[in-house]
Design brief:
By secondary structure, this protein is of the alpha+beta class. The chain contains 9 helices and 8 strands.
Length: 194
């Protein structure tokens, strides 16, 4: 099979069905093709059954990294320093390192040279995110509160001094914090964030 057929795929990511469609092979053959091309370093396996062309992986924009983060664990939304960096409220942003909030489980997924971190939160805290372009991301205030919440649980290292607090709406922070556990509320109030 010729790899040129796969190069015609315009999508950011794809599955066996797309491989089968562009190459004209059966689904079982598409699975073998995907495995073979991952081995030859022509495709990147994002997760089971989801692939990217290596050239697209290597030239991904930050927004495309966020799309992939949403795909790796569903449901999830980009948050914490990744979201704060997207909104230009911190300088602490690393390429190929995306932090997200999810409902299923806490997880660190390594894909090639990229890291995708997921922190599980309670379902009733899973809100205050928006659809931006083709990915889900926390509002700036929710990304900030998510960071404080996880820090209050002792499972996230949050350098508050690196955040530009002038870009955050303190009234929205106060409203979000009201629904969180008392420990998080005390931490936010003690630091004078609203």
């Amino acid at each position: 099979m010729n790899f040129d057929a796969l190069n015609r795929i315009q999508k950011l990511y794809f599955g066996y069905e797309e491989i089968s469609r562009v190459t004209g092979v059966s689904l079982p053959s598409a699975r073998v093709t995907a495995c073979r091309y991952v081995k030859y370093n022509l495709l990147v396996r994002v997760k089971r059954g989801v692939y990217m062309l290596r050239k697209k992986w290597e030239s991904m924009s930050r927004e495309e990294e966020f799309i992939i983060a949403n795909i790796i664990q569903t449901p999830s939304y980009v948050s914490l320093f990744s979201a704060l960096g997207y909104y230009e409220l911190t300088t602490q942003v690393q390429r190929r390192y995306v932090e997200s909030i999810g409902l299923n489980r806490s997880l660190e997924k390594e894909v090639e040279a990229g890291s995708f971190l997921y922190f599980k939160i309670r379902k009733d805290f899973y809100r205050e995110f928006i659809r931006e372009k083709d990915f889900f991301i926390a509002t700036p205030e929710k990304a900030f509160v998510d960071s404080l919440y996880l820090k209050s649980l002792g499972c996230y290292n949050f350098d508050i001094s690196s955040v530009d607090l002038s870009g955050l709406n303190r009234e929205r922070i106060a409203k979000i914090v009201e629904s969180l556990p008392e420990k998080t509320q005390r931490r936010v109030k003690a630091n004078g964030y609203f």
